[in-house]
Amino acid sequence: xxxxxxxxxxxxxxxxxxxxxxxxxxxxxxxxxxxxxxxxxxxxxxxxxxxxxxxxxxxxxxxxxxxxxxxxxxxxxxxxxxxxxxxxxxxxxxxxxxxxxxxxxxx
Length: 107
Fold this sequence. Notes:
It contains no helices and 7 strands. The protein is an all-beta fold. A 4-stranded antiparallel beta sheet has the order 1-2-3-4, with no helix packed on it. The termini are far apart. The radius of gyration is 14 Å and the shape is globular.
């Protein structure tokens, strides 16, 4: 449902929100503890959930990153990328045209 004013999100009420990012039709919410939640349209996998749902109405924790500490998240029109305390890059998109290229070690 389209919302034109901010809405209280009960499922995140007990969490301290660090930052949020918005894509074309989806959102990412990062908590102070490093947990990443996403919601919105996810047809191309940009929400980070496997298998990729068509959409998620309320924020859901990205389980593929549950053992990682996410410290930054950014969204484009149809993709999301996040930085984790590790030695690799995590991103989600359709990657139909090799948007992410080849993995590159960060160390």
